[in-house]
Amino acid sequence: MNVHQIVDLSFDVNLYFVDTPKPVLVDAGVGGDGRRIATQVREMLSGRKLQGIILTHRHFDHVGGAAELMAKFSADVYASSGEAPALIRGDEVTTGAVSFGGRLVPIPVKILDYDSTFDIGDGGLLVIHTPGHTEGSICLYHAKSKSLFTGDLVFTDGNVGRWDLSTGDFGQIVRSLEKLVGLEVQNLYPGHGPYAERDGLDHVRLGLQVVRSLQR
Ligand SMILES: [Zn+2]
């Protein structure tokens, strides 16, 4: 499995093209940079079909571009049961679309069950429920390559996502990070900023250390 980071330059947010026999995109960006992103995705696909766009959580900077990419690649969009209702009804408040000054087109997402595995033709992506940043946030884990996509739960260098936004919860952030430190993680692919290949788990541990220090 190869992973290519695509940065949405209209709001410094990451998408990932997961390059396998059944390629998928993790997150969809804010949408302002959609044309350039679609061109990149088309090149990476080199004739293959995009199997899906998996949204780590509902926030507008990760989902604003979903409708356009969905149409361009005739791909299904997936989200967890905790996030799907807000996306299906085009909720502009809890997705943060209003604060971004954007419009959220309702997205007819398909539901990804927690603890299910999404087949990517080279093993699968395990859907781990990691609430705290939003109630239905997920991380995706590819055991075969020890890769973890964390959305906005945890970034590199101990940075942790916000818990003060709608449906966020600090205690759940801590418990979600505790869940992740039990995994073998070599590669960490967060929703913002740089990714880490080799020492992924160290970054997750550092994030947990930071939130635990705030708990005291
Ligand atoms: Zn977010």
Description:
The chain is α/β, with parallel strands linked by helices and 216 residues long. It is 28% helix and 24% strand. Helix 1 (34-45) links the parallel strand 3 (24-26) and strand 4 (52-54). Helix 6 packs antiparallel against helix 7 (200-215). It is globular and about 50 Å long. Zinc ion binds next to loops.
Summarize the structure.
The protein has helices at residues 34-45, 60-63, 66-73, 84-88, 97-100, 170-180, 200-215, and strands at residues 2-8, 13-19, 24-26, 52-54, 77-80, 110-112, 117-119, 124-129, 138-142, 147-151, 187-190, 196-197.
Q: How are the SSEs ordered, and which strands pair?
A:
Blueprint: E1 2-8, E2 13-19, E3 24-26, H1 34-45, E4 52-54, H2 60-63, H3 66-73, E5 77-80, H4 84-88, H5 97-100, E6 110-112, E7 117-119, E8 124-129, E9 138-142, E10 147-151, H6 170-180, E11 187-190, E12 196-197, H7 200-215
Helix pairs in contact: 6-7
The structure holds zinc ion.
The site of zinc ion has 4 residues, from loops.
User: What structural category arises from helix and sheet content?
Assistant: alpha/beta
Mean pLDDT over the residues: 97
- Taking pLDDT < 50 over at least 5 consecutive residues as the criterion, the unreliable ranges are none
Total number of helices: 7
Instruction: Report the sheet with the most strands, covering strand number, pairing sense and barrel closure.
Output: 6 strands, mixed
Order of helices and strands: EEEHEHHEHHEEEEEHEEH
Shape: globular
Number of strands: 12
Amount of helix:
25-40%
